[in-house]
Amino acid sequence: MASQRITDFLATNPVEGPCLVVDLDVVKENFNAFRKALPDSAIFYAVKANPAPEILKLLASLGSNFDCASVAEIKMALAAGVGPDRISFGNTIKKERDVAAADALGVSLFAVDCIEEVEKVARAAPAARVFCRVLTDGEGAEWPLSRKFGCMPAMAIDVLTHARDLGLRATGISFHVGSQQTDTNAWDAAIGDAKFVFEALERRGINLTLVNMGGGFPTRYLKDVPTAQAYGHAIFESLKKHFGNRLPETIIEPGRGMVGDAGVIKAEVVLVSKKSDTDENRWVYLDIGKFGGLAETMDEAIRYPIRTRHDGGATEPCVLAGPTCDSADVLYEKKPYPLPLALTIGDEVLIEGTGAYTTTYASVAFNGFEPLASYVI
Prior knowledge:
Elements: H1 4-12, E1 19-22, H2 24-37, E2 41-46, H3 53-62, E3 65-68, H4 71-79, E4 87-89, H5 96-104, E5 109-112, H6 115-124, E6 129-133, E7 141-143, H7 153-165, E8 169-174, E9 179-181, H8 187-202, E10 210-212, H9 228-243, E11 249-252, H10 256-259, E12 263-273, E13 282-286, E14 306-308, E15 315-321, E16 330-340, E17 348-352, E18 373-376
Parallel strand pairs: 1-18, 2-3, 2-11, 3-4, 4-5, 5-6, 6-8, 8-10, 10-11, 13-15
Antiparallel strand pairs: 1-12, 7-9, 12-13, 12-17, 14-17, 15-16
Helix pairs in contact: 2-3, 2-9, 5-6, 6-7, 7-8, 8-9
């Protein structure tokens, strides 16, 4: 549900066109929940989820570190008031000149997942610490990650050995169990893989110290999700199971779970129509779609809660689409979305759980539509 602060803001600040409103009080509550759930793990907020300066400054003041995917994000984190020692360059696909730029800014912690990436880091940032990302299956995630990032655990052994041989500091292992991960036990197998790599490298005289357990922590959309405390308990039990009394340093990288439920998008119904007299579903067109920030409706993976002034009345399944002249700009069609029969042109709708991965996905000028406006309160 939209917080009262967001409701009051929208009531007193009429905004033309779609907009996202983020409540910093909710972000703070989420940060404190993660800190309580995993008190011994350093929090590295995934900047890509929502890089609004107000969010970054708040999290910096609370003690968060930052997971950055580019030099631009590194500069955003630095501008928020943290030192480079609180930043990780977590993208495994980096131009060598970007590695050098990050090194010049003082960043020393880099992700890799292959020997070729290690060699780039060794040339551009020869004193760096590196951690190797390993593949996971992502089962249980509503937005699974592909094989684009990471390598098999057996290969990670050679990647980190090569890093050591080139003079880098081979530091640890990372993984990501898939975004919007609803299975609290999803981290167990990946932590076991990390232990396998730790032991293999110890036999080669390399003592790893870090397990970066990535993100994946969900936000609530249409279904309830486990609490941060539930994830923290399951993850800690897995760490004890696999590492015993020799627990490594650990990192978590919440993004969606940090800001998703802090944001609400206000949008407007542009058109309601049918394709034929016998069409079973109405088509409801909004002034925001996939190109305006709702890219995660791709394959209907993320289904956002939608609120209207007609809630409580009779509903019928609708195809929900965006306003652009691209046939791919359809949000929900395979599984039509139940919306009130009374919904009509000009009605305002609130799309909840949209604090993450919306403004950063919004296009700049497709069809001439403005980027998604954002307000942080």
